[in-house]
Design goal:
The complex is a heterodimer of chains A (about 100) and B (about 750). Helix content of chain A is about 25%, strand content about 30%. By secondary structure, chain A is an alpha+beta fold. In chain B, about 40% of the residues lie in helices and about 15% in strands. The chains are: A alpha+beta (about 100), B alpha/beta (about 750). Chains A and B meet through β4, α1 and α2 of A and α12, β15, α14 and α15 of B.
Chain lengths: ~100, ~750
């Protein structure tokens, strides 16, 4: 399933986190932290899911902060798409590097 | 074994026969008959005229037989062929009546006088059943009644003077013992009668009589009516009325028996220089306790060398027996069976084939580890998710600060790689090693080439798997080297960095760790965690057929669903069902679930112990024996039942000729089983082996219908032997009386066997 995650900087500098237009949680302007379980529930991952992370910050407020959380989400999504074990089975003994 | 013919006519039957066919069967011509009988080796016969008795003829025949001119003719029994209407509404039948006249003129005369008193004059006349019985009562001699039967017992019409033409109840008359035997004249009728008599619960003697009327053409009927299919019936009896009585009461052992094929038997023994011959059949040694029966048996079994008292009795009584080949001798002394029963080696242990439990164990090992993996995965998922709630990542400006040092970290599990090729590599190595071993086995000699081909195919596969295994191993080594180097590098950075830089490193590490745990939790959660399927029902049995028995071994799990046993052995009561196990999501519940487990450190060990305990219980095998001839029902475990089975087994087991000596085979076996089974076992081999038993049980003498009885008596250490067949009697010896007087229940057994004649 395609999931669109949007981090929106609000006027009061709270950051709203939505998935497919549904708000999941808010990163408060006076506590710029995020809980791991909130991210787990936000992603609601099932095999085959794909994510797109966007920022909406028209007034360019606390850009580095929203960027920090956006990059964090992107990194998690990127890790999820990596295979768990990667071994090239086609290598022959003669081709081994050692 | 003698041939006999109980159906010969003389001139006394003239009133009923036309065309003069009996006119030459007169006293003057008895030598014609006797020569023919002697030539045909007929040992016992009777002149059975139609409703007449010819005293003078009998007397002359007795004189001639006693003279010894005819060495093969050994006995004459008195008889009459009566015409009787069993049912007055039906036709008459012919009943050959053999009298126990003991070759005495007075008895002959009594027969004649009584018949003459109620003489039938017309050839179509017959007696009513009441009159027939009245005549027999007035004669007052023991009789054997043999009814003529010319076709099947279901034929009630015709003019063949058959029993079934005279009554609708012929089976009843046979069953109750009123009619003792049937006489047929064509071999095919014997088969029909045997089939008719299948439902009659007693063996009925079927004999062939010549019905000879003209002695000059014996054994044919007369000059014009021959019987090319006639063959004399044979009996293992003394040529007397008593001998016939024995045959009538035990036709299965006496009539038309085959001569024993056994060539290795004990032929005789000596006592005080007197030779006692032994028959090649069943011999019963009887006598009081302490009379020397067992000593005699030991002598015959070549075991009389010990103990000392046996040796002394043997010497004192000059007992000698020429030993037969020990390999042809099977000796079971008294108490031997109970000894073997107590030692649990009544039957050879190797008869029970061990069961291989590998499949069962594989299935339950997989199931047990499947359950454990399922639960552990659930615990891991829950732990991973729960841990997330406690993890926060806070924005810090440090993230954007520039730094002099570059900190390089790996993921926590970077070098933690399991090599999935390991198990496959080991499997293939084992397989090829096994094939190499099999290839050298002589059993597979003819398949050597094919086996070699299989190895040749497998070797490249193993090579590929080894390559893949090596790649992963190299990756593991490489990554570990990298991690080790990075750790060293990072330690150096930590030491050289400023506090701010260290804070930044911490932040980065925390961020990495934060990401790792979220990704890990998601991955754990997304894994397909499936509870293993219930194990299938497995066969765990072996069957080895041997000597009419099936030696079966059966594991406790054989053919049964033992899932509940597994669950109750592995888990505590609250968790001994699959639904409860599926709900476990924390370590404490797992500890509580595993039977006998008290802490997390014990989980694996206790779980494995429980599994082993389950295997021990399930792989315990029950050995049991099935008598194949008795259907699939297993034998009981009582001494009696197993003794019986053992005797049957041992009699079947020794296929070759020989002698089988048993001291008191009746021990521990009920009289019912002696009658129904043991006697049958001995009968089944009596023509193949010589069986010599010491016994106190009259069933094994009288009902067994032994061929020879040896009565042993002892006075002042001197043994006295009396020997003879059951019906043997002379002026001083009567074997049946000896049995009646010296065996508990002997008289009752004899009476029971003979009661139908009482």
């Amino acid at each position: 399933m395609d999931k669109k995650i949007i981090l929106t900087m609000q006027d009061n500098k709270d950051i709203s986190v939505k998935v497919n237009n549904k708000e999941k949680f808010i990163i408060s302007h006076d506590n710029r932290s995020i809980n791991a379980n909130d991210i787990f529930e936000l992603l609601e991952y099932s095999s085959g899911d794909s994510y797109l992370v966007n920022i909406v910050n028209e007034k360019k407020r606390d850009v580095v902060v929203i960027q920090f959380f956006s990059e964090l989400l992107k990194d998690i999504i990127s890790k999820l798409s990596e295979p768990e074990v990667s071994i090239d089975n086609d290598i022959t003994e003669e081709e081994l590097p050692f | 074994m003698i041939k006999f013919d109980l159906h010969i006519h003389s001139v006394a039957s003239r009133y009923k026969e036309g065309k003069g066919i009996v006119d030459n069967s007169t006293i003057d011509n008895i030598n014609n008959l006797l020569e023919k009988l002697d030539e045909l080796e007929v040992g016992l016969f009777s002149i059975t005229d139609h409703n007449r008795f010819y005293v003078e003829l009998y007397h002359e025949l007795d004189v001639e037989i006693k003279s010894g001119h005819y060495k093969n003719i050994r006995g004459l029994v008195a008889g009459v062929e009566f015409d009787v209407k069993m049912d007055m509404q039906m036709a008459s039948c012919h009943i050959i009546t053999i009298f126990n006249a003991q070759n005495e003129i007075a008895n002959y005369s009594k027969i004649k006088e009584t018949i003459d008193q109620y003489k039938l004059e017309s050839k179509t006349d017959s007696y009513s059943r009441e009159m027939f019985e009245r005549i027999l009562k007035e004669i007052g001699l023991d009789v054997i009644l043999i009814a003529c039967q010319r076709s099947g017992l279901d034929r009630h019409e015709g003019k063949h003077n058959s029993l079934s033409e005279s009554t609708m109840d012929s089976e009843d008359l046979i069953m109750t013992g009123y009619i003792n035997a049937l006489e047929f004249q064509r071999p095919n009728v014997e088969g029909i009668l045997r089939n008719n008599l299948k439902t009659v619960p007693r063996n009925v003697m079927l004999v062939m009589g010549s019905d000879c009327h003209d002695w000059s053409v014996y054994p044919n009927h007369d000059k014009t009516n021959g019987n090319s299919q006639f063959a004399h019936s044979r009996a293992k009896i003394l040529p007397s009325f008593k001998g016939l009585l024995m045959a009538v009461t035990s036709p299965e052992t006496r009539i038309n028996q085959q001569v024993s094929k056994n060539s290795s038997y004990i032929k005789s023994f000596m006592i005080e220089d007197k030779k006692i011959p032994l028959v090649n059949g069943i011999i019963a040694i009887i006598g009081e306790n302490g009379s020397g029966k067992s000593t005699l048996l030991k002598l015959l079994g070549n075991k009389a060398g010990s103990p000392k008292y046996v040796k002394e009795i043997v010497i004192h009584n000059k007992l000698i027996c020429e030993a037969i080949d020990p390999s042809k001798l099977l000796f079971i002394e008294q108490g031997a069976i109970i000894k073997r029963f107590d030692n649990n080696d009544l039957f050879p242990k190797e008869n029970f084939m061990p069961i291989v439990h590998d499949r069962f164990k594989d299935i339950y090992n997989t199931f047990a580890s499947g359950i454990m993996n399922y639960i552990k995965t659930r615990i891991k998922i829950k732990d991973a998710i729960e841990q997330l709630s406690t993890m926060n990542l806070e924005y810090s400006e440090l993230i954007n600060s520039s730094t002099y040092f570059i900190h390089v970290d790996t993921e926590p599990n970077y070098a933690n790689i399991s090599n999935r090729h390991k198990v496959h590599k080991e499997e293939l190595v084992d397989l090829i090693e096994k094939l190499n071993a099999i290839q050298e086995d002589d059993y597979y000699k003819q398949y050597k080439h094919q086996l070699s081909e299989v190895i040749r195919i497998l070797e490249p596969i193993l090579k590929d798997v080894i390559t893949l295994f090596n790649i992963v191993e190299i990756e593991k080594r490489t990554k570990n080297t990298i991690v080790s180097s990075l750790n060293t590098y990072n330690r150096k950075i930590d030491m050289a960095a400023t506090s701010k830089e260290n804070d930044q490193i911490d932040l980065l590490r925390h961020r990495e760790n934060f990401i790792f745990h979220i990704v890990d939790a998601i991955r754990q959660h997304s894994k397909n965690n499936i509870f293993p399927d219930n194990p299938i029902i497995v066969d765990g049995s072996s069957k080895v057929p041997d000597c009419g028995f099936s030696f079966n071994s059966e594991a406790n799990y054989h053919g049964k669903n033992v899932l509940n046993v597994f669950l109750s052995k592995m888990f505590t009561q609250n968790y001994s069902n699959i639904e409860s196990l599926k709900k476990i999501t924390d370590t404490q519940s797992l500890i509580n679930a595993i039977k006998g487990c008290t802490c997390n450190e014990q989980v694996e060990e206790v779980y494995e112990n429980n599994l082993n305990s389950f295997f021990n219980e399930m792989c315990t095998c029950r050995n049991y024996i099935v008598d194949i001839s008795q259907g699939e029902e297993s034998l009981g475990n009582t001494l009696g039942e197993l003794s019986l089975a053992y005797l049957k087994y041992i009699t079947e087991n020794k296929k070759e000729d020989g002698a089988f000596l048993i001291d008191q085979p009746e021990d521990h076996i009920s009289n019912n089983n002696i009658s129904k089974k043991l006697i049958t076992y001995f009968n089944s081999v009596r023509n193949k082996k010589q069986i010599i038993i010491v016994t106190h049980n009259p069933l094994l003498v009288v009902n067994q219908d032994v061929d020879q009885v040896i009565f042993v008596n002892k006075f002042n250490d001197k043994i006295k032997i009396i020997s003879g067949c059951l019906e043997y009697e002379n002026d001083s010896i009567n074997i049946l009386e000896l049995i009646a007087e010296n065996m508990d229940g002997g008289k009752a057994s004899i009476e029971k066997r003979l009661k139908v004649y009482g």
